[in-house]
């Protein structure tokens, strides 16, 4: 089979590798949809590095089980099952792994599918059976791919924050994670202020139900949010842009006792402890989601009949990968997905 490999310096290639065969405790999926995640761009843009050569990208897998290795007994790992993948693999035995957080495993080096082991930008993918998450028939494969990282990351952040319908949440960045957050927050009854520097993404946020949209370049974003909230500030802020300015604005836009959650990779933020302390802020980082949260996000999407497919503005074939990532790299569109 052929799979997409990031070669560095904003280039990629289609690499030919043998079709995967499952070992003990493993399954092989026929990939139906493989989402394009903003974190892919960090690998796509970095200088050429021979140490990453030969690893198929794609960490938002969704597909159908087509082969099962010895020792696999989970009912949702049967041949023909529709599944998502929680894209981390730890030791499966430690406290973190058993609590659904294999990415936090300290017993063995964590495997990240799409970085340390072949990912989903290929027709087939081999994974550990205990990373599978069932996909309800009412959700498309594309929706499952979104939940497998981007949308699931937004859900995981809101779980940490404790978002409720009483909150006003400012969401910085309306890329795939931020737009997912806007959709999920509105479905939970929150008042949403969405911010992005791109006009198209602001329009998408409005279409997804944002109560207000702001361009941070129009002035002081924190001041604008205070004005929109009668001088109080937002009760919560979620930073998904990975930009230092967005992080600073998130910290400054919330009211006393507010909560700020930082998700975007790449930002470096300086904090004044005295300034934060005297406002009694709660500041949280959030890294993707647990296996249980991935399932809970999918259940919520079904219960609320959320149109997760509307997140996708671009659908590509595998042989269009170069064009797909060239467009995605401009960060002026929505989410892309590779369909097999």
UniProtKB/TrEMBL annotation:
<feature type="domain" description="Enoyl reductase (ER)">
    <location>
        <begin position="8"/>
        <end position="338"/>
    </location>
</feature>
<dbReference type="InterPro" id="IPR013149">
    <property type="entry name" value="ADH-like_C"/>
</dbReference>
<dbReference type="Pfam" id="PF00107">
    <property type="entry name" value="ADH_zinc_N"/>
</dbReference>
<keyword id="KW-0560">Oxidoreductase</keyword>
<comment type="similarity">
    <text>Belongs to the zinc-containing alcohol dehydrogenase family.</text>
</comment>
<dbReference type="InterPro" id="IPR002328">
    <property type="entry name" value="ADH_Zn_CS"/>
</dbReference>
<protein>
    <submittedName>
        <fullName>D-arabinose 1-dehydrogenase-like Zn-dependent alcohol dehydrogenase</fullName>
    </submittedName>
</protein>
<dbReference type="InterPro" id="IPR011032">
    <property type="entry name" value="GroES-like_sf"/>
</dbReference>
<keyword id="KW-0479">Metal-binding</keyword>
<dbReference type="InterPro" id="IPR050129">
    <property type="entry name" value="Zn_alcohol_dh"/>
</dbReference>
<dbReference type="Pfam" id="PF08240">
    <property type="entry name" value="ADH_N"/>
</dbReference>
<dbReference type="InterPro" id="IPR036291">
    <property type="entry name" value="NAD(P)-bd_dom_sf"/>
</dbReference>
<dbReference type="InterPro" id="IPR020843">
    <property type="entry name" value="ER"/>
</dbReference>
<dbReference type="InterPro" id="IPR013154">
    <property type="entry name" value="ADH-like_N"/>
</dbReference>
<keyword id="KW-0862">Zinc</keyword>
